[in-house]
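Protocol step 4 of 6.
Sequence for IS110 family transposase (Phaeobacter gallaeciensis) entered exactly as in the expression construct, tag removed. Do not edit the line below.
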Amino acid sequence: MEEVTVIGVDLAKSVFQVHGADVHGGKVFSKKLTRAQFARFMKDQSPCLVAMEACGTAHYWGRELEQLGHNVRLIPPAYVKPFVKRQKNDAADAEAIAEAATRANMRFVEIKSEDQQAQGMLFRTRELLIRQRTQAANALRAHLSEFGVIVPKGIHNIDRLAQYVDEAERILPPSLVQASRLYLEQIALTNQKIAELTQAIQTYARSNTDTQRLLTIPGVGPVTAMAITAFAPAMETFERGRNFSAWLGLVPKQHSTSATIFTEIRKSEWLRRPEASERRDVRRT
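Step 5 output, structure tokens:
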């Protein structure tokens, strides 16, 4: 039996597909394993290259497998797709992952630490609450507009809606007043949670060496600084600053043919909102 040099793993919640290949790329095994079986199976394998798509639970398993002595590589799913040779299924995906990992020019995703993932959760939870607050505010604004109540855009104008509901309570339908106050209570509670998360981010930014250095850059505040430390790979990954700009999506995306070039700016959505607000602060100064 040939020695396994690379194992491609198609991750899942319950049943994993693993594909083992030898040094020449030949198939050694292909099997399905439960979560518990997968952990035991990888523990019994000799240290080798283990490749997975950079998807849900990949960073957790990456850390676990590195502790077993394996060389773990995470591949962006878009870079695996071209290597799927037939209809898409777990076995084909695992084989494609194993093949993609052996390519000399393949790009990989750095495995995140537990601290980085915890920072990322804090950031994304705050972003989720902001979206939920906006959704509730827009719903309340739309409902009250049917009764002739129009206020300017902006979350800071919600207080005007609250004032109107209080002042017109006697002339408005009771069900409208009840529903409006539910919206207002939800918005107030969400504001409180957002403020708590913002404070936690600011506290972390002041205590972390990397974020402290990022805060010295004009236009970079605590939210953006923590987003970079949570989501960006190690700076040693980039040969020059413009490569980091490309990773952020601040450079045009090229789609060209012959002498004709079409470009569009592709900026990371998770960084756009905090960056824009902090850029406005720079202009004010």
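Step 6, annotate. The beta strands are 6-10, 15-21, 27-34, 49-53, 71-75, 252-257, 260-265.
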